[in-house]
Design a protein that fits this description.
Helix content is 38%, strand content 20%. It has 10 helices and 9 strands. It has a 6-stranded parallel sheet, with helices on both faces. A 3-stranded antiparallel sheet has the order 7-8-9. The chain is globular, with a radius of gyration of 19 Å. The two termini are 34 Å apart. The structure holds pantoate. Pantoate binds at residues 28-30, 58, 61, 128, 131-132, 150, 153.
Length: 284
């Protein structure tokens, strides 16, 4: 496995692979890898000749008061996990490689980014789409793998790829959870033991929400209300949003009569966590 920092090196390696018709699977990450990332890597490993993982904490997707500086980083550990998982190449660019002096071009996906996380994180998706487009141009993967925990991100990237005619298959992979239900996230490391316990309120609400749908609930507002009430019982939790949206447009719906996403963002003290479930989507 190689670890490279420059775009020129990645391009030259990818060129050689393409000469021998090798297919490329790509897993973009911000590092501090956990089993969620590893499930994406495993899928990429199964479906492609070569696997590239990028590790880059992308500053343009963090707002001014967000956790860019404290975002956890551990390249050595990440590299060991990647090596073990059969990754061929880690792209770990410097800030200057990705955003050289004078950089001023951004990719902005409209509509889908105006709801859910886009409301409380107004610059987030512009940063995500910009860095993911750059990575797609540099790595030119056949397939790219994203977790469904960031379901809005997945929908936005799929829209961007379709709208801008990018030649890559975007593949969503199911949420990976701890045994007690907490969705795996690099941000879980911020939680104290007490907060970690409180954070289980998200998956409790998700499980209950799924049950209501299985029992035949058709009213989106009733579903949101029921899920919200569960979270409100936890004193350390503060809701950013609990919403039900159309799976493809990310617009709020009244009736559960199409593929939909039930999503939430909840602060456990200072840590903002997200979780969701999808009904009628390709992985359900
Ligand atoms: O999901 C993430 O970790 C990031 O948003 C991504 C896709 C790597 C872009 O920085």
């Amino acid at each position: 496995m190689k670890i490279v920092e420059t775009i020129a090196e990645v391009k030259s390696i990818v060129r050689a692979w393409k000469k021998s018709d090798a297919s490329i699977g790509f897993v973009p990450t911000m590092g501090y890898l956990h089993e969620g990332h590893l499930s994406l890597i495993q899928r990429a490993r199964q479906e492609n000749d070569r696997v590239v993982v990028s590790i880059f904490v992308n500053p343009t997707q963090f707002g001014a008061n967000e956790d860019l500086d404290s975002y956890p980083r551990d390249l050595q550990h990440d590299a060991a996990l990647c090596e073990n998982a059969g990754v061929d190449l880690i792209f770990h660019p410097t800030l200057e490689q990705m955003y050289p002096k004078g950089f001023c071009s951004f990719v902005d996906v409209d509509v889908l980014t105006k709801e859910l996380c886009g409301l409380s994180r107004p610059v987030h998706f512009r940063g995500v789409c910009t860095v993911v487009s750059k990575l797609f141009h540099i790595i030119t993967p056949d397939r790219a793998y994203f977790g469904e925990k960031d379901a809005q991100q997945l929908a936005v990237i799929k829209r961007m790829v379709q709208d801008l005619n990018m030649d890559v298959d975007v593949i969503g992979c199911p949420i990976v959870r701890e045994t007690d239900g907490l969705a795996k996230s690099s941000r879980n490391t911020y939680l104290s033991p007490e907060e970690r316990k409180a954070a289980l309120v998200l998956s409790r609400s998700i499980t209950q929400g799924k049950k209501y749908v299985q029992q035949g609930e058709k009213n989106a507002h009733t579903l949101v209300q029921a899920m919200t009430e569960i979270i409100e019982k936890e004193p350390l939790a503060k809701i950013d949003y609990v919403k039900v949206v159309d799976l493809f447009t990310m617009q709020q719906i009244d009736t559960l009569d199409r593929p939909f996403l039930a999503a939430m963002a909840v602060y456990i003290e200072k840590t903002r966590l997200i979780d969701n479930f999808i009904v009628g989507g390709e992985n359900v």
